[in-house]
Structures are given as C-alpha cells and as structure tokens.
Write the structure tokens for this entry.
Amino acid sequence: MSPDTLITLSLMTLLLPLAGFVVLIFTGRRLPRQGDWLETSIVTVGLVLSLVVLVQKLTLYGGETLSARFTWVDFGTVPGIGPLRIVLGVALDNLSTIMMATVLVISSVVHLFSIGYMQGDVRYSRYFAFLGFFTFSMLLIVLADNLLLLYAGWELVGISSYLLIGHWYEKKSASNAAMKAFIVNRIGDVGFFVGILILFTTFKTFGLTEIFEGIRSGVLPYGSEGWLTAAGVLIFCGAVGKSAQFPLHVWLPDAMEGPTPVSALIHAATMVAAGVYLVARTFPLMTAEALTVIAYIGAVTALISATVAIAQNDIKRVLAYSTISQLGYMVMALGVGAYTAGFFHLVTHAMFKAGLFLGSGSVIHAMHHALHRRHDHHTDPQDIRNMGALRTRMPVTFWTFVVYTLAISGVPLTTGFLSKDEILAGSMAFGELTGQVIIPLIGFLVAGLTAFYMFRLVIRTFLGAHAEPERLSEIHESPAVMTLPLIILAALSFFAVFSLNPVGAASGWVMQSLPRPESVTPVSVAPPPVAVFEDALHHVHGGAMGLSLLMAGLGILVAFTTYAWKKIDADVVAQRLRPLHLFLLNKWFFDETYDLLVVRPTLAVTRMLRWFDNTIVDGLVNGTGWLTRGVSFISGKIDTVVVDGAVNMTAYLSGVLGLVLRKFQTGKVQTYIMFVVLSVVIFYFLYRLV
Amino acid sequence: MESLPKVVPEFLAWLPRVGLSHFLIVSAVLFSLGVFGIVTRRNAILVLMGVELILNAANLNLIAFSRYSGLNLDGQVAAVFVIILAAAEAAIALAIVLNIWHRFQTVNIDEVSTLKE
C-alpha cells in the first residue's frame, strides 16, 4: 500500500469514532439498542484498519516517517518576525502506529465489555457517544505531528475524561471527582503550554521535525541550554498532570467514581499513557538534566503509590494506585534513557491493566447483582473484605485475572515480565553510568511491592472463603459479551505477542521497531548517547533479570504467607504499625495537604475578590447610575424651569401685547376715520417741517 | 348805489376785500365741523349729516378755486357733479340706515359694532 493509502486509513480510524460520536449524541436514544453496536463496530473497524496500517508500515516502510500536512493559517510576513505560518498534519512513524493500534485494541474491547456492563444504564447512548469522542481525541494526540494539534487532542481527552468520570453526575462524589480530574490536569497543562510557547517563539513552528532540526543546527531557546531544559521540563509538566505523576497524581484514585470500563480505557490504558507518549515523542529535545528530573519524579511516584496500594481495600483503588505506580515506572524508564522499554511497558501495561479493570468490573457487576437480589444496600460491592472464593463461581474472570496479575508482577512467560525486565535493566544501567543508584533501588523495591499487593488482591477476592457464605450462591459468571474481552486481553498478555523469546524482548518486533532516537541537544547537556547506554545495558541485563525475579518471588511469597496460608496476621501487623498503616491508608494525606495549602487559600482569595466585586465594582456602577440620575434630574429641572419659562414668557408677552393692541380694533368706523384725520394732520405738519 | 346812506360806502370800504383765502377758511371750518360730526355723533343720521357737510365744504372749495382762477368754469361743473353724487349717496346711505334700523332696532352706531370681536 502506498504511503497515501496508509495515511488515509489512519485518518479514517481518527474520524470514524468522531462521526459515531456525532450520530450518537444527537440521535442516540432513537437508534436500536441506543447505538451501542454501531459505536462498537465503528471502533472495531478502526481497529482492523489500524492493524492493517501497522503491519504494512512495519513490513514495507521500516523506520520511515510518513506524514501528510496542510497549512492551517498563513500570516504572510509579520513585522518583526518574518514569514509565519502554522502547518498542521499527521505523522505515521512506528511510535504512533503501534500506539494507534494499542488505543484501538483497548477501545474496542472496552466498547464490547460496556455493552454488558452498562446494560440498563440511565444514559446509555450518551456513554457510548463519549467513548467514541474519547477515542477520536486520543488518536488525535497519537497521530499529530505538531505540538498544537497534540495539545488540542490533549485538552479534548481531558474533557472526555471529565464527561465520562461524571457519567453518574447525580452523585456528588462523581461530579466532584470529574472536576478534580479536570482542574488538576489543567495545572499540568499550563506548564505544558508554556513549554510549547517557548519552543514556538524560538522556532516559529509547532512541528516537531522542524523543532528537532532547529535544535540540532544549534538554535537554542533564548540562546541558552538552561531554557532548553526548562522547555523540556515544562512539557513534562503536562505529562505530570495527565499521567498522574507526583505531585499531580491525586485525581486518578477519585476518577474511579466513573464506570469501570471508563477506568479501564481512560485511566489505565490510554489517556494516562498520553503523558508517557508525549515524553517519548519529544524525547530528542530533552537534556540530561530534564531527563534526570523526569526519572526522579517517575521513581518517586512509583514508590509512593505502591506503598499506598498495599493498604487499600477497594478493588478499584488498589488498581488505581497500581496504575499510578506503573506509570511512574514508564516515566522513570524514559528518564533513565530506556526509551524503548518505557514505551514497550506502556503497550503491555495497557493490555493487562485494562484487563485487570475489566476483570474487577466483572467482579463488581456480579457482587452488585448478588447484593441486589439479597436486598442488601449497605455492603460495598467494591470492598475486597466483602469478597472471597469467587474463583468457584467466576472461573473465566478468575483465570484471566490471574494472567493479568502474573503479568503485572513480572512473572516470566508474560508480556509484563519482558517490559518490566527491560525497565529495571535500564535503571541499573543508568545507576551504573551516573552513580545515582537510588533509582534502580526504588525500581526493584516497587517491583516487590507490586507483586505483593496484586496477589493480595487476587487472594482476598478470589480465594479463601467468602465473607458471607450465603451470598456466594447468588454470584454468577458474567455474560460472554463481558468475558470475551477478558479472554482477548489475557491472550495479549502472553509473551508470544511481542517477542518469540520469553526472556528477552530485544529481538521482538516491538523493541526492534522502536530504537531510541538520538538526542538533538547540544553535546554538553545531552544524555549519554545511545551506544554508551546500550553497552551499559548489556552489562547489567543478567543481574537485573535475576534481581527482578527475586523481588517478584518475594512479593508473591509474602502475599501468600499473609493472606492465603494465614501465617502472618495482617490485622495484627496493621495494629502494631498503626501510624504507618493510617498514613498509607489515607494516601499519605495528600488530599488533606492540598486542601490546606492550595484549596483553602484559593477559596479565601475568591472570597476577597468577590467582596471586591460586590462592594467596589458594583458600588462604582451603582454610583455612576446614581450620578446619572442626579444629573438628569438637574437637567430636567432646567428644562422645566428655564426653557419652559422662556417659552411661557414669550407667550405671555404676546398675549399682553395683543391685549394692548386689540384696543385699536373698536369696530367703530368713527374711530377709524378719526385715525385717518389724525394721520393727515400729522403728515401735513411733517411735510411742512420738512 | 346812490340810494344807500352815505355811511354805507365807507362801511363797505372799511370791510376787507373778499379774497380766495376767505372762502377756503370757511370751507375748512365747514370741513372740520363735518369731520367732528362724523367722529363724535352716535346717531347714524347725524353721521350722515356730517358727511353732507364735508361734501358741501368740498363744493365750496371747488367753486372758490373756480372763481379766482380766470374764467375757468371747471370747478363749478365739478360742484354740480358733487351735488348730484351727494344726493345719490345720501339716498343709498339712508337706505342702509333703514336696514340697520330694521336689523338692530336702533341707529346708535356704538351698538352696531358686531365687526368688533
């Protein structure tokens, strides 16, 4: 297929979900089944097209970048700047093609799952419409070849997230969570936008290729490397917000208020991955300092959220913090220079995390029905302390869930093992090259914690005895429309999908097609070159693998010891370490801290401004009105007294004069004759005198 | 003239010679009296008498000028005209006064002032 065909097909995958959105949002309720199969089939068609594009791209065009562009605005010659035009377009390189396929796989699987999960929902067609809108927005981010279009898609996914988290907006907690997500995202977006503007003012373009070319040829923002680092860090700010990195991670756990398929699609696999994708896209312009910042933030995020996850009892909260932790992993990977590993983990994580969420959705769905049938409206269907022994009643859900858990814990034969292994090896290489060993230390610690809390989740939910034995008989496996996606995602979590070598992915098609791009930054601030990094990687690979297997094994062992074999009593440990346990259970009190430090001062400022607005501004306006009334009163008085007086005076004078002159009209002829005679005499004397 | 007493011719010589101005003065006096009559009288008939006086004063003027400017008789001819016109006019005027009497039951011209607002 020609490049044009591939571009056309990708544009179709981009625009079809948008068309689906438009149709469903206006006519949704009138369509048969409210349009769920329509939207699902649109996205599935998109998936097929993206797979075609992927295969064609990888086999025929290798490492090329296919792109199509158009001039959006041509400003001509701007005085003081020169010729200025904004060119937008789409770019198909391996990064975007693989990402596009990933997004569409998850999206179509989630669409299918939602048909079962959201059955009977009060806003069914609107839900599917917004899922389609989200898919379009996410693909816009993926396919954009310039920062402006990417930013547009960025904001659009933010809106989709808001709309979908707040799907059940009658619940105050849901609408609050939606607002929180959007506002926290916005904070990151401000930094992102400033970064974009720094680059735009320097290079007069939004296109990434042009920017890289510019930096490579020596042009630096405001002529300094410091500004280049700043631009990189600011762009990463956007990723901090969108990918829930510390300190802007607080929105993601609250986002679990949305329907579980939404959590699977947006807050596990795609939207939160957009930040990682952004860093991967802008990787060449990151200086070593920027990358160090990125690595540390990623590592810190991974650690904090892993520690919180071990103390959570809501199944979705555990998965939410797990997502934050894994995103931290990806960000850390990009920061240490393991570009391919980071992106690879994004893809594998998307599969098994979506699977985990959908699996939990299946569990919640079953629990919900069981509780409903028993007229129990108090028990929380999402609390793992109310679950147990679900393995016997929901085998498909159980076995697929086990596959996902093995993947996330980094057990061999899964995709997760491959990607996590690469990341840990990369962090060790970084530690060796720069001497900052804290990063790999944190990486391995988190690996152990991850295995622990994930297996804790599996054991409490599916194994052992159910919290209330009579309830167990009411629990049924979910319908095929929900279990099929689970099976598909489990299949995609097996190593064979990405690499024929179960212990090393470097020869697999994914890692082969995504070589780390060379940095375009000046050598003095550039990260270690690719060759040096690859070298260090080779050194540490064996050790890293062994260590990661050890940590995973330890975590699983501790989990089983505590929760399955009950050799350690978790409650006793929690009691003994009560302050620590409370600290972790309350998520390190981040929300409370932000409330005190940010929210309250902002509200206080708001109150001040409102006082200002009501008292001073309104006072001014009212005062002006009062003045106007006064002036018009005076003007009116002048009008009545002076002007009207003059008019009346004139009339009066005329009247008086008339009265006087009227006396001449006696109506008597004799008087008139008298006047005649008088005038004759007067004229005579006048004549005589003259 | 010899039959008259001897004093008469001296008395006659003492009397001024009658000139044009004497006639004119008389005519002016008559005219003024006529105007006075028109302007002052309340009775319509008396107003008409004043009008007659004025006409006759004019007549006198005409004849006086005719006598004292050669043997031109134009003045006297005009005077005859005036007399005729005066007569005609008096007839019509009296007819009008009669109508006024019928209409207003009075010939007091002060009370016939409906032209005045």
Remarks:
- Chain A touches chain B at residues 662, 665-671, 673-674, 677 (CB under 8 Å).
- The first strand of chain A starts at residue 66 and ends at 78.
- Chain A has a mean pLDDT of 88.
